[in-house]
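Anyone up for a design puzzle?
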């Protein structure tokens, strides 16, 4: 049996190969943008403003716990975008989207997230959760598909 380095086998599945980092493109950009947006939204919620605050007239109804959740998930999204590559980045984006899909379903069932939030989640937040879920899964699936074709 001879060794041919140009042949890939199943043991290469999921491993970072030369050139994988250059192909991360949209998935990396999406996760970093989502991370920055969530981190910004979480921090913005602690400042009195009409966009995200614990007020009925705010676009997004959030409380301190909700802001901390946004900061934490923003940091997770940034970590996925900054530190994962190749198939791991694609899987990370899909997992992040699946987690936000669960958050969407949970907040649709209980807008106060079963008593965790003091302010019920509103329609704008549901829309944001849906965009994060669908967008992250779609970007991750597209990145995974690029890996299969390549």
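Challenge accepted. My sequence:
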């Amino acid at each position: 049996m001879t060794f041919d380095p140009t042949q890939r086998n199943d043991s290469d599945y999921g491993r970072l190969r030369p050139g994988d980092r250059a192909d991360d493109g949209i998935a990396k950009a999406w996760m970093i943008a989502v991370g920055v947006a969530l981190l910004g939204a979480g921090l913005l919620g602690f400042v009195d403003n009409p966009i995200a605050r614990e007020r009925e007239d705010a676009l997004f109804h959030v409380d301190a716990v909700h802001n901390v959740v946004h900061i934490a998930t923003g940091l997770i999204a940034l970590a996925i975008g900054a530190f994962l590559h190749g198939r791991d980045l694609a899987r990370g984006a899909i997992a992040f989207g699946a987690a936000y899909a669960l958050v969407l379903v949970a907040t649709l069932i209980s807008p106060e997230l079963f008593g965790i939030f003091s302010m019920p989640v509103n329609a704008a937040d549901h829309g944001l959760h849906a965009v994060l879920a669908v967008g992250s899964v779609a970007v991750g699936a597209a990145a995974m598909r690029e890996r299969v074709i390549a």
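A detail worth pointing out: The first strand starts at residue 52 and ends at 53.
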